[in-house]
Design brief:
- The protein is mainly alpha-helical and 260 residues long.
- It has two domains: 115 residues, no CATH class; 99 residues, no CATH class.
- Helices cover 80% and strands 0% of the residues.
- The protein has ten helices and no strands.
- Helix 2 packs parallel to helix 8, helix 5 runs antiparallel to helix 9 and helix 7 runs antiparallel to helix 8.
- The longest helix is centred in the C-terminal third of the chain and has 56 residues.
Length: 260
């Protein structure tokens, strides 16, 4: 589980509720069903108009990715690629076929199989990058979904504000109607702002981070496979792949490679 997301949601909710309670009037004055219907229902309906139904059907699966951290084990992947490079230099590229069963990543397994089959390097590069681009396209769907929702929620908050002001101005002689209209106007804006800035936009940002993490891993794999196919020195490959990592992780990877 992604503790950053969970702690952030918990802390943010606590701060928002504490601020509301601190006003001295209690939480119930902030509860307004028409405002919630306007912002949540209206923005979701607009989201459905903006996106095809098959994408909308994936919204729960997309949301799950926000709360899960996928451990790509980049250090293990780099170590494996360096070992494959050493074996290929020593025993030839065909010897890698015996190692395919131990490869957990389907993307890496596919690339190594291309190498074993003697596929042209340019074709390997094109096919792997095509698959990477397709992966990024799938990720972009989820990013767009929450990006759209983050834009629509404040807009519907503003629609609610206008509706409340219209109701208020239409009944200036009725003090109760003025209060109800102003309440609808302000609370609807608040709902839209909270949902957009506390939920939808942060969720979009988190999905962008997930995409960058997986893209980095697959770029490392592509670089490793192309280097193995071209017969690069394993030490050169090692230095090349380790350069993808942040400095604090490089020493650990190098130590693991040299220990084997």
């Amino acid at each position: 589980m992604d503790l950053s997301t969970i702690i952030g949601l918990g802390l943010g909710t606590a701060m928002i509720l504490w601020s509301m309670i601190g006003g001295g009037s209690g939480l119930m004055i902030y509860a307004n069903i028409p405002s919630a219907a306007m912002v949540i229902g209206g923005s979701f309906a607009a989201l459905m108009i903006s996106n095809p139904l098959p994408r909308m059907m994936k919204i729960m699966a997309i949301t799950q990715k926000i709360f899960k951290i996928q451990n790509f084990e980049v250090e293990r992947i780099i170590t494996t690629l360096v070992k494959f490079s050493e074996k290929a230099r020593r025993d030839g590229l065909l010897a890698l076929e015996d190692e395919l069963e131990m490869v957990e990543e389907e993307f890496m397994k596919k690339g190594i199989q291309f190498v074993v089959d003697g596929t042209d390097p340019e074709i390997i590069k094109t096919m792997l990058y095509t698959e990477l681009n397709q992966q990024q396209g799938r990720h972009e769907e989820g990013i767009k979904l929450y990006g759209d929702w983050g834009s629509l929620a404040p807009a519907f908050g503003m629609v609610g504000t206008l509706a409340g002001l219209i109701a208020m101005l239409a009944n200036l002689s009725d003090a109760d109607a003025i209060g109800a209209g102003m309440s609808l106007a302000l609370i609807t804006t608040m709902y839209g702002s909270i949902l957009a800035n506390f939920i939808f936009i942060p969720f979009k940002n988190k999905l962008e981070d997930r995409d960058k993490e997986e893209t980095l891993v697959n770029e490392i794999i592509i670089e490793g496979i192309l280097s193995i196919q071209s017969g690069d020195n394993p030490r050169i490959l090692e230095a090349k792949l380790v350069s993808f990592l942040p400095p604090e992780k490089r020493e650990a990877v190098l130590a693991e490679i040299n220990a084997e």
